[in-house]
């Protein structure tokens, strides 16, 4: 093996998402079967002992691609020279909480981590935020890292994208691999808008194929929008393995590229495309080539979709105001 290891920072490393995620990164699911990785794991001090146990299990898995593991509770040390950062560590919501309740509890984590990435990460750093409220936490990290290009900060809406594909596949009797061009617009929250008007099922327009506006509005949208809450209700804990899987999917595609003739949903800083206010970290259809994403341009947005996208981006703008008034961004 001749490739130098890629340094991957992961926060919240003793938590439930990471108990799945770390083993998949080390097995090659993130960067492929020929790319060694070094893990840099950040936790809060009281969780370091539990994290030591996770590291024992990583050791005991004898992953050929895992060239090293470092753990710590100081972001400045753990983020030193990292190429990729998966920011997962944050308090998950429990039954009855909405994401907005998490803004204050979790927002402060991302000021410190944004600054630490700014000062210590490698020049090619890519940052993906999974910890909720993911879009606004990414905005906080980005705003506290003025020397890192803004487009290096993404948030996770790939889980919503995957959920939407699964629901559509079940409705039309297809497999998820028959479905392309799915899009989640807006926020990773109950206002997100999963768009069937551009999705294709074996090349056929999904909205035309379904031909059931009642199902789209009363079943499909709320099922995808509320899926996180449904899992919390059923499991008594928030989604973990599927969140880890989506985190891998997003970063894998951001580094290695999206398939030809398809796109994926990525929450990225808006450049004003589709009327989304510039600077908000909002979900868009994106393609990736050479490690750089582009927002797919030129899609026609009907009135129904316009209203849904506007509602979700209005929520993102409100979250931005809320964290500004908390002093987390300027
Ligand atoms: P968890 O409570 O099991 O683990 C979170 C871990 O983060 C804990 O071990 C905690 O000690 C650690 N942590 C807290 N503050 C930290 C800090 N400042 N630095 C480093 N680590 C810190 O939670 P989980 O189930 O793994 O979920 C993690 C986050 O991911 C939650 O915010 C959850 O809501 C979110 N989530 C997002 C999506 C998505 O699609 N975007 C999906 C599922 C979960
Ligand atoms: C999810 O979508 O499963 C997570 O964001 C957890 C949550 O709070 O909904």
UniProtKB/TrEMBL annotation:
<keyword id="KW-0816">Tricarboxylic acid cycle</keyword>
<keyword id="KW-0560">Oxidoreductase</keyword>
<feature type="binding site">
    <location>
        <begin position="12"/>
        <end position="18"/>
    </location>
    <ligand>
        <name>NAD(+)</name>
    </ligand>
</feature>
<protein>
    <recommendedName>
        <fullName>Malate dehydrogenase</fullName>
        <ecNumber>1.1.1.37</ecNumber>
    </recommendedName>
</protein>
<dbReference type="InterPro" id="IPR001557">
    <property type="entry name" value="L-lactate/malate_DH"/>
</dbReference>
<feature type="domain" description="Lactate/malate dehydrogenase C-terminal">
    <location>
        <begin position="157"/>
        <end position="322"/>
    </location>
</feature>
<comment type="similarity">
    <text>Belongs to the LDH/MDH superfamily. MDH type 2 family.</text>
</comment>
<dbReference type="Pfam" id="PF00056">
    <property type="entry name" value="Ldh_1_N"/>
</dbReference>
<dbReference type="InterPro" id="IPR001252">
    <property type="entry name" value="Malate_DH_AS"/>
</dbReference>
<feature type="binding site">
    <location>
        <position position="113"/>
    </location>
    <ligand>
        <name>NAD(+)</name>
    </ligand>
</feature>
<dbReference type="GO" id="GO:0030060">
    <property type="term" value="F:L-malate dehydrogenase (NAD+) activity"/>
</dbReference>
<feature type="binding site">
    <location>
        <position position="163"/>
    </location>
    <ligand>
        <name>substrate</name>
    </ligand>
</feature>
<feature type="domain" description="Lactate/malate dehydrogenase N-terminal">
    <location>
        <begin position="6"/>
        <end position="151"/>
    </location>
</feature>
<feature type="active site" description="Proton acceptor">
    <location>
        <position position="188"/>
    </location>
</feature>
<feature type="binding site">
    <location>
        <position position="99"/>
    </location>
    <ligand>
        <name>substrate</name>
    </ligand>
</feature>
<feature type="binding site">
    <location>
        <position position="132"/>
    </location>
    <ligand>
        <name>substrate</name>
    </ligand>
</feature>
<dbReference type="InterPro" id="IPR036291">
    <property type="entry name" value="NAD(P)-bd_dom_sf"/>
</dbReference>
<dbReference type="InterPro" id="IPR001236">
    <property type="entry name" value="Lactate/malate_DH_N"/>
</dbReference>
<feature type="binding site">
    <location>
        <begin position="130"/>
        <end position="132"/>
    </location>
    <ligand>
        <name>NAD(+)</name>
    </ligand>
</feature>
<dbReference type="InterPro" id="IPR010945">
    <property type="entry name" value="Malate_DH_type2"/>
</dbReference>
<dbReference type="InterPro" id="IPR015955">
    <property type="entry name" value="Lactate_DH/Glyco_Ohase_4_C"/>
</dbReference>
<dbReference type="Pfam" id="PF02866">
    <property type="entry name" value="Ldh_1_C"/>
</dbReference>
<feature type="binding site">
    <location>
        <position position="106"/>
    </location>
    <ligand>
        <name>NAD(+)</name>
    </ligand>
</feature>
<keyword id="KW-0520">NAD</keyword>
<comment type="function">
    <text>Catalyzes the reversible oxidation of malate to oxaloacetate.</text>
</comment>
<dbReference type="InterPro" id="IPR022383">
    <property type="entry name" value="Lactate/malate_DH_C"/>
</dbReference>
<feature type="binding site">
    <location>
        <position position="93"/>
    </location>
    <ligand>
        <name>substrate</name>
    </ligand>
</feature>
């Amino acid at each position: 093996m001749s490739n130098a290891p890629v340094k991957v920072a992961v926060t919240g490393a003793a938590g439930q998402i990471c108990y799945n995620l770390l083993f998949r990164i080390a097995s090659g699911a993130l960067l492929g079967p020929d790319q060694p990785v070094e893990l840099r794991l950040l936790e809060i001090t009281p969780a370091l002992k539990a994290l030591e146990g996770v590291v024992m299990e990583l050791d005991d898995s004898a992953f050929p691609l895992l060239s090293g593991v470092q753990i710590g509770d100081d972001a400045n040390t753990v983020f030193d020279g990292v190429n990729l950062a998966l920011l997962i560590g944050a308090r998950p919501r429990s039954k009855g909480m909405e994401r907005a309740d998490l803004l204050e509890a979790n927002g402060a984590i991302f000021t410190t981590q944004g600054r630490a990435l700014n000062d210590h990460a490698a020049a090619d750093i890519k940052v993906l935020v999974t910890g909720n409220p993911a879009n606004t936490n990414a905005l906080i990290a980005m705003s506290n890292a003025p020397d890192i290009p803004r487009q290096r900060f993404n948030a996770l809406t790939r889980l919503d994208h995957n959920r939407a594909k699964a629901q559509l596949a079940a409705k039309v009797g297809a497999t998820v691999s028959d479905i392309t061009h799915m899009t989640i617009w807006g926020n990773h929250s109950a206002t997100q808008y999963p768009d069937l008007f551009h999705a294709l099922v074996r090349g056929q327009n999904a909205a035309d194929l379904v031909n059931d506006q009642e199902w789209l509005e009363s079943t499909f949208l709320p099922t995808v929008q509320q899926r996180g809450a449904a899992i919390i209700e059923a499991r008594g804990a928030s989604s973990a393995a599927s969140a880890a899987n989506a985190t891998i999917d997003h970063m894998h595609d951001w580094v290695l590229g999206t398939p030809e003739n398809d796109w994926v949903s990525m929450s990225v800083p808006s450049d004003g495309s589709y009327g989304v206010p510039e600077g908000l970290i909002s979900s868009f259809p994106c393609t990736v080539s050479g490690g750089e994403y582009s927002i797919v341009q030129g899609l026609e947005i009907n009135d129904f979709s316009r209203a849904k996208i506007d509602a979700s981006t209005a929520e993102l703008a409100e979250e931005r105001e809320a964290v500004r008034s908390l002093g987390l961004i300027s």
